[in-house]
């Protein structure tokens, strides 16, 4: 990743020597627990992360919280080897940061996971995760996909990106990789939710793709730097994909596919679930067809996806009275990008807007997606133009 690009667009990070107690404790918890630990989530809600970690350290966790015995002993032993400042510094050297609930970049829709929500997220890449997630859709499916599935996932994701949607997937082989590549191919942005540390390249065969996602989008994980994936962690990360996005599209999946677990979690979280039909003779279509029979919506292109999950536009922009306008609240660099978008119906490509704003193309692209999420601009083919107010 180009460090200069990351620093130009990402939110301000917390320097290691200035970690507040809550952030420090949440960093430590990512080393102690596995993602989605509801027992620890309830403890954090009741005690706060800082008090919980100190209670674990002193073997003084209150009774009745479900955190006791061998489990508590294991956490206490792990805690002796944790250095939160070093963890944050390690992430920073890789262009990463640590985001917790309450931060401006925290996507509040993850709170729908209740006690199982992440204690924090390790994030690598450019742009604001919260703003990019506002207008995002998950595209998932089988790792051992067919050429048909890879083509559909790529085309669908390209179309979604051209309509200003952020494509979210898991950076795995098969449908995930095709979805990410489809969005990147048309200059769109994409988010990869990992089952390992954001500094770990997995699967190795997707090293180039993962690097491009970090440059043109965001990689995120609940697991701290250096963590490696296992089967259990893949299943757990699916709930983050489901909660982060406005809807989940399954392109290809067998009856026991992990992609179906993402769709089920999306349904349980009252998100839209969608499926792309395939040949009835294909095993990799059986899971999707069962999902559709169970209530998911059949979709065939990005227009149908957009029609279902809707436009966020003005409805999510802050409404204020008095002389303060929404555009007055934009960060200076974002405001420069907005000023550089021409008022013509044709708009302009990213490179031209970047030249007028005095910013790199990748940085300009991230700010355009943020402005799109706030309803100021929209993508029209390869160009970006101002949203016309009615």
From TrEMBL:
Pfam assignment, any one: DNA_processg_A
Recorded coiled-coil stretches: none
Sequence segments annotated as region (Disordered): 1-22
InterPro entries: DprA, DrpA_SLOG
Residue stretches making up the Smf/DprA SLOG domain: 98-307
Compositionally biased tracts (Polar residues): 1-13
GO BP: DNA-mediated transformation
UniProt cross-references to SUPFAM superfamilies, sorted A to Z: MCP/YpsA-like (SSF102405)
Recorded family membership: Belongs to the DprA/Smf family.
Protein name: DNA-processing protein DprA
Species of provenance: Kitasatospora camelliae
């Amino acid at each position: 990743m180009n460090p200069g690009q990351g620093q130009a667009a990402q939110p301000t990070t917390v320097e290691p020597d200035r970690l507040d107690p809550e952030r420090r404790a949440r960093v430590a918890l990512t080393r102690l627990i596995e993602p989605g630990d509801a027992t620890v989530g309830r403890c954090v809600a009741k005690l706060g992360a800082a008090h919980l970690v100190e209670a674990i350290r002193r073997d003084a966790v209150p009774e009745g919280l479900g955190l006791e015995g061998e489990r508590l002993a294991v956490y206490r032993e792990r805690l002796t080897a944790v250095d939160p400042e070093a963890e944050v510094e390690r992430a920073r050297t890789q262009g990463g940061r640590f985001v917790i609930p309450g931060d401006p970049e925290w996507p509040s829709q993850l709170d729908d996971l209740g006690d199982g929500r992440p204690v924090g997220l390790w994030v690598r890449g450019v742009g604001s995760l919260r703003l990019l997630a506002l207008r995002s859709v998950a595209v998932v499916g089988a790792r051992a996909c067919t050429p048909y599935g890879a083509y559909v996932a790529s085309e669908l994701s390209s179309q979604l990106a051209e309509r200003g949607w952020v494509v979210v997937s898991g950076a795995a082989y098969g449908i995930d990789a095709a979805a990410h590549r489809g969005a990147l191919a048309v200059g769109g942005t994409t988010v990869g939710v990992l089952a390992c540390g954001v500094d770990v390249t997995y699967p190795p065969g997707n090293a180039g793709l993962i690097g491009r996602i970090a440059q043109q989008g965001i990689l995120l994980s609940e697991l701290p730097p250096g963590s490696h994936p296992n089967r259990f962690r893949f299943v757990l990360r699916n709930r983050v994909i489901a909660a982060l996005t406005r809807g989940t599209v399954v392109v290809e999946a067998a009856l026991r596919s992990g992609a179906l677990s993402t769709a089920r979690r999306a349904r349980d979280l009252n998100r839209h679930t969608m499926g792309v039909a395939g040949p009835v003779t294909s095993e990799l279509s059986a899971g999707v067809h069962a999902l559709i029979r169970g209530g998911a919506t059949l979709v065939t292109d990005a227009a149908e996806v957009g029609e279902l999950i809707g436009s966020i536009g003005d409805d999510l922009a802050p409404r204020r009275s008095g002389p303060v306008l929404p555009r007055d609240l934009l960060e200076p660099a974002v405001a420069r990008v907005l000023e550089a978008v021409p008022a013509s119906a044709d708009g302009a490509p990213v490179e031209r807007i970047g030249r007028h704003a005095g910013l790199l193309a990748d940085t300009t692209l991230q700010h355009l997606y943020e402005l799109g999420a706030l309803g100021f601009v929209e993508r029209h083919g390869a160009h970006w133009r101002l949203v016309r107010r009615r």
